[in-house]
Write a structure and sequence with these properties.
By secondary structure, the protein is an alpha/beta fold. Helix content is 35%, strand content 20%. The longest helix has 21 residues. It is globular.
């Protein structure tokens, strides 16, 4: 059996100019990054603003398990299927982070015969967007420390510096560091921290900004520290905005590549969904909606994380209204939720399936609270039995969801036609009555509790004392009308990764809260989730290599 990277490397890609022509772009509308990658120009994006919007389809999933779900693969395969059916469709996906590529999860180019290419470029440096974000973030950190060193005119309290440096790599030793050691000219000694680039506020700002003016306004609002009077000090106060915007100028433009079947794909931005808001950029999504009749996008991890943030943060800010939601599951993952060991998932086990399907049930219930119609798809494995498939199909149809088998990993677009037909049927026959979960006017604690109780199924929320004080201060400073971005483990509906299925009678523990004023939300850390991941005992980096001909191996 061929690996994903072998399939991708054997693919015959079309020049990106030719892919662009299919959806009405000329070469002058592109900024080429070699033969197979391009950015879309600001001039073109401005020229299509009068076009009608296409239909917006969100792809989400149950909670991830070691058995695999295939959300990105399904998104890509669905777009390819629309292409097979002569429908004008575009993908709008996130860029992968280097951290998971060299860690444990791998990249985010899809899999099998439902991939975007060039796969190696996408999973590594791509067009440099993440490097630009990292540089802008760390420029602000450097300007902050320099301001303190050069006399501290703004009266910054060095014990209340909240801006963190970032790096797009899993590096746990950088979570807590001390800077400024050495002599007097080496800076002021203080505790500092790193987050992974995809958890940084600059990443969120890039993904939520509508244009350059909006980007600069958001950057100016970034809170970097508090002064001795307890008042926020911003990037605007540090005169950092212009230089940061200059670093982000090209990164603001969506990237165009293609699927294995030459379907256009806009890939832009990449916040994690467990510790950030988990969606591709608003610019890419809105541009795609003006370019195509159908836009397939995805939100990270399970629907309790990615979809909730897509709805309550991205759609709220961008006035987007999804027309349908595809919810991805696998029989293997449902059996894993039912208590079956990974090594035993290939055997038919209806009892375990019945126990584990409660995870799918909760995600269906959650998505229905937002008012968009749902199509459930099973990402197909050869070990799935007819009895297991029939059980899941009836379970979904009994809950007013369309159901389809997806075989896109094995068959590409051809294997997604059944799913595409159900999505089209849903778009034509089931109107979307989309609405967000909570109103802006609620207090921050009321918003946290709405997500915890309604989406996670918690009986309540436990706040550590410092988190309660942080939330109170944020409201006093005028940030209480913002949505909340919940940082939580992806492996469970709860904040305990060991609680599979549909946990009940649990509390969510909030340990920290801080404002991302430029992004426009309040980040709420729950459980033991980290904003800088670590590498596993055997990182994926061990298996990655490049030969003398420049061919990369080991990426997945």
């Amino acid at each position: 059996m061929k690996t994903d990277i072998e399939i991708a490397q054997e693919a015959v890609m079309e020049p990106i100019v030719k892919v662009a022509e299919r959806i009405g772009l000329k070469e002058d509308d592109l900024e080429l990054y070699g033969k197979y990658k391009a950015k879309i120009s600001d001039e073109y994006m401005n020229s299509i603003q009068g076009n009608p919007d296409g239909k917006l389809i969100l792809v989400t999933a149950i909670n991830p398990t070691p058995a695999g779900e295939g959300k990105t693969t399904t998104s890509i395969g669905l777009a390819q299927a629309f292409g097979k059916m002569d429908k004008k469709a575009i993908l709008a996906l996130r860029e992968p982070s280097l951290g998971p590529c060299f860690g444990i999860k791998g990249g985010a180019a899809g899999g099998g015969y439902a991939q975007v290419v060039p796969m190696e470029d996408l999973n590594l440096h791509f067009t440099g967007d993440f490097h630009a974000i990292t540089s802008a973030n760390n420029l602000l950190a450097a300007l902050l420390d320099n301001h303190i060193q050069q006399g501290n005119e703004l009266g910054i309290d060095t014990r209340q510096v909240v801006w963190k440096r970032c790096l797009d790599m899993n590096d746990r030793v950088l979570r807590n560091v001390v800077v400024g050691l050495g002599n007097k000219m080496d800076g002021v000694v203080r505790e500092d921290h790193f987050v992974i680039t995809v958890a940084s506020e600059i990443m969120a700002i890039l993904c939520l900004a509508s244009d350059m003016n909006d980007l600069k306004e958001r950057l100016s609002r970034v809170v970097v520290a508090y002064n001795y009077a307890g008042e926020p000090v911003t990037a605007g106060d540090l005169q950092a905005v212009g230089a940061m915007a200059a670093l982000l100028k090209d990164a603001m433009k969506p990237n165009l590549i293609q699927t294995l079947e030459h379907t256009p794909a806009l890939i832009h931005g990449g916040p994690f969904a467990n510790i950030a808001h988990g969606c591709n950029s608003i610019r890419a999504t809105k541009t795609a909606l003006k370019m195509a009749d159908y836009v397939i996008t995805e939100a990270g991890f399970g629907a309790d994380l990615g979809a909730e943030k897509f709805f309550d943060i991205k759609c709220r800010m961008a006035d987007l209204k999804p027309d349908a939601v595809v919810l991805v599951a696998t029989i293997r993952a449902l059996k894993y939720n039912g208590g079956v060991l990974k090594a035993e998932l290939s055997a038919e086990n209806l009892d375990a399936l019945q126990k584990g399907i409660v995870n799918l049930e909760k995600h269906i219930e959650n998505l229905q609270k937002y008012g968009a119609p749902i199509v459930v798809t099973l990402n197909s494995f050869v070990t799935d039995t007819d009895a297991e498939i029939a059980y899941v199909q009836k379970f979904c149809e009994d809950r007013n969801c369309e159901f389809a088998i997806s075989e896109v990993w094995e068959k590409g677009g051809e294997g997604g036609i059944a799913l595409a037909e159900k999505v089209l049927h849903t778009l034509e026959n089931k109107p979307s009555n989309f609405h967000v979960l909570y109103e802006d006017s609620l207090s921050l604690k009321e918003k946290i509790e709405a997500v915890a109780k309604e989406i996670y199924g918690a009986k309540g929320v436990n706040y550590v004392q410092s988190a309660s004080k942080q939330l109170q201060k944020l409201e006093e400073l005028g940030f209480g009308n913002m949505p909340v971005c919940m940082a939580k483990t992806q492996y469970s509906l709860s904040d305990d990764p060991a609680l599979l299925g549909r946990p009940e009678d649990f509390e969510i523990t909030v340990r920290e809260a801080y404002v991302s004023a430029g992004a426009g939300f309040v980040v709420v850390l729950t459980g033991a989730v980290m904003t800088m991941p670590g590498l596993p005992k055997k990182p994926a980096a061990y298996g990655i290599d490049v030969n003398e001909d420049g061919v990369i191996t080991g990426l997945f």
